[in-house]
Amino acid sequence: MDSEDSDRDRGAGVEVAGGERSGVEPTEEQRGAQRLAARFFTLSMLAGIGLFVVYFSGGQTQVEGILFAIALGALGIGIGLWAHHLLDAREAIEDRHELSSGPEARQAFEEALGEEVGPAIRRRGMLLGLLAGAGGALGLALLLPLISLGPAPGDTLKRTAWHSGRRVVDEEGRLLTLDSVPEDGFVTVYPEGAVGRADSQALLIRVPRGLLRLPPERMAAVPEGSYVCYSKLCTHAGCPIGLYRVEQQTNGRSLFCPCHQSQFDVLDSAKPFFGPAARPLPQLPLRIDNEGHLAAEGDFFEPVGPAFWDRSK
Ligand code: FES
What we know:
alpha+beta, Rieske Iron-sulfur Protein, four-stranded antiparallel β-sheet, 7 helices, 12 strands, binds FE2/S2 (inorganic) cluster
């Protein structure tokens, strides 16, 4: 081979994975597709990196969404270009023949398997590197939701602002005494100093004496056998309960949740008897302090609200 031939071969030679060269020359269209795929992989990689930068510099949901869409879309387009223009799509038709392969057929298959197929790709290593970079940046971006989970809540979901000795106030912050609630009346209450705190809101109900059917240890937390207090958060989906009903015919007392119509039996530990709620409303233990004010004996007996994380108990 003379020197001119040698130069021409070097120019026409095609680099493939592993540094091998294939003699199949790509068309101009395939070269263009290769350049385009490389640009899309680069765009995907830059968008993935940009997503990290935006996230760690404070985050902006819309910008993160756009960058994620660009990273994913550009990666998909790049892979599509590669598959459509740079992979072999030859159709081959073979006559039906005996099902078992003879030694010659197996030999031919093994040779064909080792053959370079499809159009040769110039700088395939670069394209593969860009694809890996784009895929890696996108893969790392998928870890961001894990980072956003934040610290574990611990037992904060099981505690409210109530604790032993904390006095009971109404929505205006006024301290409550036994005279503050009329018979069969009810009032929304909070711990003193925490008015408005959602997880601590409760309903103080004055039930006529002798009607409550609570276990002895729960009854001991009901001043005068009349002033019972339950969490105001529905145990179904956490809506605030706001309706107290007196059934004249059955002498029953119930609380009604307006969201999905769950009903709770006030006289029987606020157990649900209608609707989707499955757990009773947690009771808040109360006592009368030395100054005659209503005060908590401790926190609610159970976690308030849906408490789905605490179902095992
Ligand atoms: S939130 Fe009360 S019934 Fe659904």
